Amino acid sequence: MKHLTHRIAVMALGLALFVAGPATAAVFTFDDPDGLDDGLACATSESTCDLLTKDFSIGTFGAASGTIAVVGTSASIAITVPSVTFVGSYDGVEEVVFTDVSYSVSGWFTMDFGGTLTGLGSPTGTVSGTYEQFDAGSISVSGPTAFSESVSFSNLLCTNTAPSGVCGFSVGTLRDFQLDVGAVTPASHDFTHTFNLAAPEPGTAVLVGLGLLGLGLRRRRA
Fold first, then answer.
1. Which DSSP helix (H) or strand (E) runs through 2?
2. Among 89, 126, 157, 176, which residue's CB has the most CB atoms within a 10 Å radius?
3. CA nearest 96: which of 20, 215, 183, 13?
4. What would the DSSP string read from start to end of 115-137?
5. Nearest of 155, 183, 144, 178 to residue 42 by alpha carbon
6. Residue 29 and residue 205: Cα distance in Å, rounded?
7. Cα separation of 67 and 103, whole Å?
8. Contacts of 35 by beta carbon, 8 Å cutoff, 6+ apart
9. Is the pTM of this model over 0.85?
10. Are 120 and 110 in contact (CB under 8 A)?
11. For the segment 60-107, what is each residue's pLDDT rounded down to a tens digit?
């Protein structure tokens, strides 16, 4: 009886994945090891934040996972990254390491321009997690410190049709996403992140579903 129940559960899961595939057409799902494209950190005292004025830039990062869901003309983003390291130099700090970072925003008005989903405006969302600062010898000089900041999101573009495709967006602008950085005399820094996320082909979920369904049928015949 126990084995029969297990077979039924496996078959039901496979069938659900197979049937549910088209129903997720409005959702891009990501698990992209190269999802973070760029990122800078500049002292808030700077009038601009670019490659010439930066104190830090993104070095290493974990896979970006989560979803961009579109309902009608409204998009919601929920992305997490396990770690992001900014490398550079300021006041004895050589690395700023973010962990368990969540990026979220909802109600982003979107329009479809010739097959490209475009987010209009710069809605305010949230970035949260912890960050820690390290010196040249990889010794912690500050933190880990929890943060949760209200941050603007911008430049949303998604190509192709969900659930597959590529979506890009930016997080943070000058005077927007600010955290203190420094070992001796910390100063406010503005952080920016740019994502370029690739979603898998739509056939992937179907293949997984069929595989589970086939496994259940084979066990039943055995």
1. helix 2-20
2. 176
3. 183
4. TEEEE-S--EEEEEEEEEEE-TT
5. 178
6. 11
7. 11
8. 61, 63, 64, 79, 81, 195, 196, 197, 198
9. no
10. yes
11. 999 999 999 999 899 999 999 999 999 999 999 999 999 999 999 999
